[in-house]
């Protein structure tokens, strides 16, 4: 049974006796209260300087507010995660709590765990469709993906991260990896690397790009899927517009005036400058753009005609004529044979 709370006067008596030099046991025996109560009253008085009942919000939470937010985000990203997986993830963040504590924190937010009902799979259309939808949504299974499609090309940074993973796995084979921290460290390390150190990974990326382009040329997509158009690197580039020519001239000036601007802010300022120009000021850029467009049209025409073999009609008509000549020769040979026969007779 819970004891009645001691009054403030009674607690003051405990403090007064302590200040007079009485020991904890003597105060407990004289006032007929437990020794632990005497200790807690005196400790509170030493810390706060009063024996009043101080307000509080309740029992402190075992999981901090920021950890709850991260946990909720992780559950949203991985709805099939188990309590053990969430517990290990919390331990990596420095929050060592029991599985029941994690489950209770979700229950307070009206989010509850789910377990699969143990039953034989009914091979009805609705059951199969629901399972396929779940797999596509949560297990990253791409339905209807062509397995023969070439693997995408990897960038130099992707090769660098792959190398870092292999190194980490060799050094710590059994350690779990916090991917957010790992990717952050990789990014910082990549920024500090020199061009010579990055060269190895850039060479790998170039080789993979050649492999990808070669495989995509021979790849035939299934019906209903459009094949990605291959872009020839030797094809003439489209000409710049008058605005882009203006941007190329004034971009260094804008960056020099305000060096801290982002790419978007620089583009915004260039757009404002272009709009403030008069029609006469825009004429030189429009003339340059027209010349570039004219040159592009000539280049693209020559590029499209390159490699085409012209078909001459007389060449096709010559074949029958040759046959006629052969027939005439055959007829002459036959006539000669007939004359020889007559002479023999």
From TrEMBL:
GO CC field: chromosome; nucleus
Transmembrane portions of the chain: none
Region (Disordered): 305-345
Subcellular location: Chromosome; Nucleus
Keywords associated with the record: Chromosome, DNA-binding, Nucleus, Repeat
Gene3D superfamilies: High mobility group box domain (1.10.30.10), Winged helix-like DNA-binding domain superfamily/Winged helix DNA-binding domain (1.10.10.10)
Database matches in SMART domains: HMG
GO molecular function: DNA binding
DNA-binding region: 150-220, 236-304
Record flagged with keyword Aminoacyl-tRNA synthetase: no
Superkingdom of this protein's organism: Eukaryota
HMG box domain sequence ranges: 150-220, 236-304
GO biological process entries: regulation of transcription by RNA polymerase II
Pfam families documented for this protein: HMG_box, HMG_box_2, HTH_SB
PROSITE patterns assigned: HMG_BOX_1, HMG_BOX_2
Family label: Belongs to the HMGB family.
PANTHER family the record matches: HIGH MOBILITY GROUP PROTEIN B1-LIKE 1-RELATED, HIGH MOBILITY GROUP PROTEIN DSP1
Listed name of the protein: High mobility group-T protein
Organism: Salmo salar (Atlantic salmon)
Gene of this entry: HMGT
């Amino acid at each position: 049974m819970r004891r009645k709370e001691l009054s403030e006067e009674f607690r003051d008596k405990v403090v007064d006796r302590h200040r007079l030099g009485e020991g904890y046991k003597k105060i407990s025996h004289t006032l007929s209260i437990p020794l632990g109560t005497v200790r807690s009253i005196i400790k509170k008085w030493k810390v706060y300087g009063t024996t009043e009942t101080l307000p509080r919000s309740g029992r402190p939470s075992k999981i901090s507010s920021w950890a709850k937010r991260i946990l909720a985000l992780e559950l949203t990203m991985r709805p099939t995660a188990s309590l053990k997986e969430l517990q290990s993830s919390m331990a990596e963040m420095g929050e060592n709590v029991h599985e029941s504590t994690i489950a209770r924190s979700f229950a307070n937010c009206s989010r509850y765990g789910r377990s699969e009902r143990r039953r034989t799979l009914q091979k009805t259309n609705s059951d199969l469709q629901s399972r396929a939808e779940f797999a596509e949504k949560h297990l990253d299974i791409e339905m209807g993906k062509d397995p023969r499609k070439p693997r995408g090309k990897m960038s130099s940074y992707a090769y660098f991260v792959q190398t870092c993973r292999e190194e980490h796995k060799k050094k710590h084979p059994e350690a779990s990896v916090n991917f957010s921290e790992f990717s952050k460290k990789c990014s910082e390390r990549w920024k500090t690397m020199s061009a010579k150190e990055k060269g190895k990974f850039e060479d790998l990326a170039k080789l993979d790009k050649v492999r990808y382009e070669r495989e995509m040329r021979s790849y035939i997509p299934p019906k209903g899927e459009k094949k990605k158009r291959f872009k020839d690197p030797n094809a003439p580039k489209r000409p710049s517009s008058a605005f882009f020519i203006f941007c190329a001239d004034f971009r260094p000036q804008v960056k020099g005036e305000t060096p801290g601007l982002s790419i978007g802010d620089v583009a915004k300022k260039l757009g404002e400058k272009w709009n403030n120009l008069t029609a006469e000021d825009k004429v030189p850029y429009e003339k340059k753009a027209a010349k570039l467009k004219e040159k592009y049209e000539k280049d693209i025409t020559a590029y499209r005609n390159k490699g085409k073999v012209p078909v001459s009609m007389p060449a096709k008509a010559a074949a029958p004529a040759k046959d006629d000549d052969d027939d005439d020769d055959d007829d002459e040979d036959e006539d000669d044979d007939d004359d020889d026969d007559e002479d023999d007779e």
